[in-house]
Design a protein that fits this description.
Order of helices and strands of chain A: EEEHEEHEHEEHHEHEHEEH
Mean pLDDT of chain B: 87
Shape of chain A: globular
Strand order of the largest sheet of chain B: 1-2
Oligomer: heterodimer
Distance between the termini of chain A: 29 Å
Helix content of chain B: over 70%
Strand order of the largest sheet of chain A: 6-9-10-3-11-12
Low-confidence stretches of chain B: 1-14
Largest sheet of chain A: 6 strands, mixed
Largest sheet of chain B: 2 strands, antiparallel
Structural class of chain A: alpha/beta
Shape of chain B: globular
Number of helices of chain B: 18
Mean pLDDT of chain A: 86
Number of strands of chain B: 2
Structural class of chain B: mainly alpha
Strand content of chain A: 25-35%
Number of helices of chain A: 8
Number of strands of chain A: 12
Distance between the termini of chain B: 29 Å
Chain lengths: 252, 404
């Protein structure tokens, strides 16, 4: 295992009753890289993500973070280890401002009453948004008045603000237009460039080849492809997703 | 690509800040206090036109005492409504507080202050038990508080019926609070002193924001502050032209500002809004949603107890008929008219003040022009329907733009 390895998933198995969701999922995410996780519906992407984020632990298999095997039984375990998931619904409170959302559940306060240190939080938020090169209106703007891309940016900035090493993104571009998709993809690239590990779940092959460094394809609960993007073509990836191609690394 | 808010404001500086502020308000899906203040101005102009006694210092002084009970109960209801829930027990729960207070002071002859604590404590228990059912078991608040109201009614009647349904109060504290005013000189000292503190905090926060390039412009901020000051001087001046600020009003405003502090400036308040806006997102962010729900019902209980004691002090009697009156519906109406959304997460405790002012103004004005109750109820109902319609339309506007 090289030092750049951030997260290694080894032989994950998971059964829901009689249904085997994961048989043998293994892959590695490196620091400073975007790993695209692909697969058809029911291939086990969500189950894998739930295992890594602690939402639904796997039955067996190992998750190794920075060389140490970790136990992820609850979402709080994953958060404490620096694994943040940006869910498809973003989990933002639309009735609150940008800054309030960024610090939701981790507000900086003064005792004894838990008085919010708004000015400090705004300063910290501006610093993080600056490093992400995110363009947002005034930080007390309600999230409800932001565009889809800006909302995505707030959710990602929150993950960064919380001291994350690994950001898992579930279909971040699914509901976005062309310009906003480009903005979010740039953000994904920037995250990786800053040394974060990124797992990107997507159906969009174009996105994959635009931002990913390596590609992992799941099929029927098994890893069927793990390769560098440079070794791949869209045809190979699609073939692995649909199962029409069963060998990896063959001639394209 | 621009980065921080300072760059953003510089691009919009071709417009005057006041104009961009009004524009933001018109396009916004969250109007805040604007509609209710506009409604209040219209109501006052209409009644002043119908009866020139409406805006006299004496009547304004009456009005300021009339808003207190509705306002305090609306404050309680606001905490629950902000979660997207409702508490229908506040009317009878307030009677429980008054009944406990009157029985302990009048018949047991206990000292007044512990009895105040017992009265408010009784309502806190009602709120706490309802909050436990709502937060731990997940029973809908509508049904829980309906049952709670019936039980509170039973408890009140059990305490008051043996004494003929009402117990007159005679202690000095409730007489003073219910009937007396703060002397004009002290009214001025108190109000100006409090405003100085308030303005100091606001200015220091504003300066901190400006330094970091966030927040609204200087002109908008200082215009708002100056408008608030003028309003305060006008209100205190009018009240002092009669007899000074009523004690009832001072206590209500004290509760109002305490609630404003809790909801706007503390972590608890932030979490209250968050849970009302998106409970699932709040849970995933590590907020203890059940605790917030329980706390909201408990705080509401304390405010309901205060409201019940203030009502008893104002009337000079703890009476079971209060629970049968429209006290609970008025409080819910005041909160909603004040812009607090029944869908949760949107609104402000100041809405309780303005909503109570609207309701009390209509009641007071109708009494002044000698209109029958039938018309009064009709008008109040229409205002409530307009308020809830605006709330629903704004929500639909948010939904249309994909923002729940």
């Amino acid at each position: 295992m090289s030092t750049a390895d951030l997260l290694s998933v080894r032989n994950l198995h998971k059964k829901y009753g009689a249904v085997t969701a994961l048989r043998n999922v293994s892959f590695t995410v490196r620091k400073g890289e975007v790993t695209a996780l692909l697969g058809d519906n029911g291939a086990g992407k969500s189950t894998t993500i739930k295992a890594i984020s602690g939402a639904a632990p796997a039955d067996s298999g190992n998750i190794i973070l920075e060389g140490q095997e970790v136990s992820l039984r609850r979402p709080a375990d994953a958060n404490a280890l620096g694994i943040q998931t940006v869910y498809q619904d973003l989990a933002l409170c639309d009735n609150l401002g940008i800054c309030a959302n960024l610090f939701l559940g981790r507000e900086r306060v003064l005792w004894p009453f838990g008085i919010l240190r708004d000015v400090d939080m705004e300063a910290e938020a501006l610093r993080v948004l600056k490093t992400l090169r995110v363009n947002l209106p005034s930080l007390d703007t309600h999230v409800s008045s932001l565009s889809g891309g800006q909302r995505q940016a707030v959710a990602i900035a929150r993950a960064v603000l919380w001291g994350t090493k690994l950001v898992i993104m579930d279909e971040p571009t699914a509901a976005l237009g062309v310009a906003q998709t480009a903005e979010v993809l740039r953000l994904v690239r920037d995250l990786a460039a800053q040394g974060f590990g990124v797992i990107l779940i997507t159906h969009n092959m174009h996105n994959v080849f635009e931002v990913a460094d390596s590609v992992v394809v799941l099929r029927l609960g098994e890893t069927v492809l793990e390769a560098r993007k440079s070794e791949l073509t869209p045809e190979i990836v699609v073939g692995c997703i649909t199962g029409s191609r069963t060998t990896v690394g063959g001639t394209a | 690509m621009t980065v921080n808010a300072k760059d953003m404001t510089s691009t919009t500086q071709t417009q005057s800040p006041v104009r961009s502020w009004t524009q933001k308000l018109v396009q916004s899906s969250d109007l805040g206090m604007a509609p209710v203040i506009a409604a209040l101005i219209v109501i006052w102009i209409v009644f002043e036109f119908l009866n020139p006694h409406f805006l006299t210092p004496r009547n304004i002084s009456n009005l300021s005492a009339q808003i207190v009970v509705t306002g305090t109960l609306a404050l309680a209801e606001t905490f629950v409504i902000l979660l997207g829930m409702i508490d229908l027990s506040i009317g009878w729960s307030s009677v429980v507080a008054a009944a406990v207070f009157s029985v302990t002071t009048v018949f047991l002859n206990w000292p007044v202050w512990p009895c105040v604590g017992l009265g408010i404590g009784a309502s806190v228990i009602v709120g706490l038990l309802q909050g436990l059912l709502v937060s731990r078991v997940g029973v809908p608040s509508f049904v829980v508080s309906l049952g709670g109201a019936m039980i509170a009614e039973g408890v009140s009647l059990a305490m008051l019926t043996p004494h003929g349904g009402s117990i007159p109060l005679s202690d000095n504290l409730s007489t003073m609070i219910g009937t007396l005013n703060i002397a004009p000189s002290w009214s001025w000292i108190l109000s100006l002193g409090l405003f100085a503190v308030f303005a100091g905090v606001m200015v220091s926060q504003h300066m901190g924001r400006m330094k970091r390039g966030a927040g609204e412009g200087h002109s908008v901020f200082f215009v708002k502050l100056a408008a608030l000051f003028v309003l305060l001087v006008a209100a205190v001046g009018t009240l002092c032209a009669y007899r000074g600020v009523p004690w009832l009003l001072l206590i209500f405003l004290g509760a109002l500002f305490a609630c404003a502090f809790v909801t706007k400036s503390t972590r608890f308040g932030r979490h209250l809004y968050a849970v009302g806006g998106n409970a699932e997102a709040s849970r995933r962010s590590g907020i203890n949603v059940r605790f917030i729900q329980l706390a909201a019902f408990t705080i509401a209980g304390a405010l309901v107890g205060l409201g019940g004691l203030l009502d008893a002090a104002r009337l000079g009697v703890a009476s079971a008929t209060v629970g049968d009156s429209d006290i609970m519906l008025n409080a819910v109406a005041a909160a909603v008219i004040g812009g607090t959304s029944l869908f949760g997460g949107r609104g402000s405790v100041y809405g309780a003040l303005f909503g109570a002012l609207v309701i009390a103004s209509v009641t007071n004005g109708m009494d002044l022009i000698g209109a029958p109750s039938s018309i009064r109820f009709g008008v109040e109902g229409a205002i409530l329907l307009v308020a809830i319609t605006i709330d629903t339309l704004l929500r639909q506007r948010r939904l249309r733009s994909g923002r729940v």
